[in-house]
Amino acid sequence: MPTLIACFTFVLVVMLFLPTKWLQVQKVKKGFVFMSSYVTSSTTRKTGLVHLITPFVMSMMAALRLRIRPKQRKDIQTKLIHAGLAENWTVENFVSVQAGSAVLAGLYFLFLGWANGNSDYYLIAIGAVLIGYFLPQQWIRQKIKSRQESIRRELPHLLNAVAIMCEAGLHLFPALREVATRQKGVLARELLTVVNDVAYGVGQIEALERMADRCQVEEVSRFVSALSQTIERGASGITGVLRQQASEVWEDRKKKAQRLGAEASLKLFLPLLLLAFPAMTIFMLGPVFIELARFVMN
């Protein structure tokens, strides 16, 4: 460890004192841009490792006469859709990741137990297998939550943008296409999917309801419900509906921010009571006790 720290310090000092042109900053920047683009693109498709282990895991499950139950398959597929991973991940991919992480975690602690001659690691390996199996489920739940938060943040801005397009003379779905192609984000991609579904022959209301089912966000469901009613009635007040929905979403965000602020103040009260109050008490009453002790001693 000291050798590693010394090497890191040496490299840092050399980078600080060498002339800038020697470092070829532009090449370094290009390298970082390439790496960033590679990582970004790899998150939108199946990784090579998952692609490689999936056939092996499926063949092992077939040899052991294990199969994915229909209910389990449906549940995993629903989670993949809600997480926005259905285009790049299959149910088999996810099950393979679960099995692979469980096996690797168990083998790691079994190896530690064999190398150290400690049987306690064998018991830890059992817990590691369970953790490795359920860890991908926790990951996908976090992915769903993060995606829903992104949709909530993007919704009011997109609604206002669509309302402006409609006021400028565009119809609803051309306005949705224009906004979806110009904007970036999760909700913009969902709107583009809606427009493409309608172009392929899906009904407008059905395409919107599919989006609400994929998003699983209350604000989006309300927006789709109000918009569907307006489309069914054939009313011309699309712009008013969009403005009203955007205003309601903004109000919901304000109320949520106020609620989180109130919860934060309550959460800060206990650490303040346990840490700051004793220190303040010692600072204020400490001299008094010292003088009192001196008086008693004399």
Task: Summarize the structure in words.
It comes from Brevibacillus borstelensis AK1. Residues 159-285 form the Type II secretion system protein GspF domain. Keywords: Cell membrane, Membrane, Transmembrane, Transmembrane helix. The longest helix has 60 residues, at 238-297. The chain is mainly alpha-helical and 298 residues long. The protein has a domain at 151-250: Receptor-associated Protein. It has helices at 2-17, 25-43, 48-63, 70-82, 91-116, 120-167, 172-182, 186-199, 204-215, 218-233, 238-297.
List the SSEs and their pairings.
Layout: H1 2-17, H2 25-43, H3 48-63, H4 70-82, H5 91-116, H6 120-167, H7 172-182, H8 186-199, H9 204-215, H10 218-233, H11 238-297
In short:
This protein has eleven helices and no strands. The protein has helices spanning 2-17, 25-43, 48-63, 70-82, 91-116, 120-167, 172-182, 186-199, 204-215, 218-233, 238-297.
